[in-house]
Design a protein that fits this description.
With about 325 residues, the protein is of the alpha/beta class. It folds into 2 domains: about 200 residues, 3-Layer(aba) Sandwich (Rossmann fold), CATH 3.40.50; about 100 residues, DNA polymerase, domain 1, CATH 1.10.150. The two termini are about 30 Å apart. The relative contact order is 0.15.
Length: about 325
């Protein structure tokens, strides 16, 4: 997710912890009809609560790897009782969920506003904090450890491929040159390092901070976000009932590309421009609810800055077929 400096600051205010594209999500999933739903990215619990409130016949199973999400889940458990169940895990591990089939599945990828607003988590350079960035801060290496030890090839993958930073050569060189000096240990000093090497364009006001793309790339690589999305989508679709609907909300092009190609593959369409397979070589397991992604309205983007870059796609399962 890429937010401008103004967007990021306003995310603390009116848009704090507001579920993105809530109305569109409910329209696609139709929980008011009842059923068992999976919220693969619980976050602040906004989508889960809306589904539970839509009908007394709704049960929601929620997943989140963030240890701090567990406390928020306990609060919902007290309200909804047996209609709500929470698993502390990465959504890539849906195979470990005991419930075997769902009427609807939701993924809301990227960071939650809780994670952005808690400076000590190290996701934002708005705060001077240890450069951590782990969505599950009980395991794995921190962003600082990655920057201090990663190979040049891994840094390029993070900055160029995942961060989509045009000045990636300068940034990678700066990171390697800063090793062992304490600069890569904190959010502010790392952001200032990046800002110092990215050229400013005369007469042009940048919409986002120069460090935004690099922060995104590093976060994606240390949390294995794209690999988790691929695994979560595949296992989720296996667990979806016939006529059930899967909804995925993405916040940057890399996430959305994975979702789009996966949904197109399931619906028997070409996954991309170079997909020239014959139609008889394709499987039609589902139907995309709409060809184009759903975007937030002007009113929603005014009230919730996080929704500005959101893209929502949905698919309805028609038949079984995935191994």
């Amino acid at each position: 997710m890429l937010l401008s400096m103004d967007d990021t600051l306003s995310a603390q205010g009116a848009s704090k912890h507001v579920p993105v594209l809530l109305e569109a999500t409910m329209e696609y999933l139709q929980p008011e009809k009842g059923g068992v739903f999976l919220d693969g990215t619980f976050g602040g619990g906004g989508h889960t609560r809306a589904m539970l409130d839509s009908s007394p016949e709704v049960c929601v199973v929620a997943i989140d790897q963030d240890p701090e999400a567990e406390a928020r889940a306990l609060a919902l458990k007290e309200i909804y009782g047996d209609r709500f169940r929470f698993y502390s895990m990465n959504f890539a591990d849906i195979a470990r969920v005991e419930e075997r089939s769902f009427d609807g599945i939701l993924f809301d990828f990227g960071l939650s506003s809780f994670q952005l607003d808690e400076g000590e988590r190290g996701f934002s350079f708005r705060f001077d904090a240890p450069l951590d960035m782990r969505m599950n801060n009980r395991e794995g290496i921190t962003a600082s450890e990655f920057l201090e030890t990663a190979s040049e090839a891994d840094l390029i993958r993070a900055i160029r491929d995942y961060g989509e930073e045009r000045s990636w050569r300068k940034v990678v060189a700066a990171i390697i040159g800063a090793r062992g000096k304490g600069i890569l240990g904190r959010t502010k000093s790392f952001a200032e390092l990046i800002e110092s090497v990215i050229p400013k364009r005369a007469g042009f006001k940048e919409r986002i901070h120069p460090a935004t793309r690099t922060f995104q790339g590093v976060r994606i690589v240390i949390n294995r976000e794209l690999e988790s999305i691929e695994a979560g989508l595949e296992e989720g679709f296996r667990r979806l009932k016939i006529n059930g609907v899967m909804v995925a909300i993405s916040f940057h092009s890399l996430e959305d590309r994975i979702v789009k190609r996966f949904f197109r593959k399931l619906s028997g369409r070409p996954e991309h421009r170079k997909d020239d397979r014959f139609q008889e070589e394709r499987q039609v397991l589902g139907s995309m609810i709409a060809t184009k992604a759903v975007k937030a309205s002007e009113e929603e983007t005014r009230n919730n800055a996080r929704s500005r870059s959101a893209r929502m796609r949905g698919i309805q399962k028609l038949v079984e077929g995935m191994a």
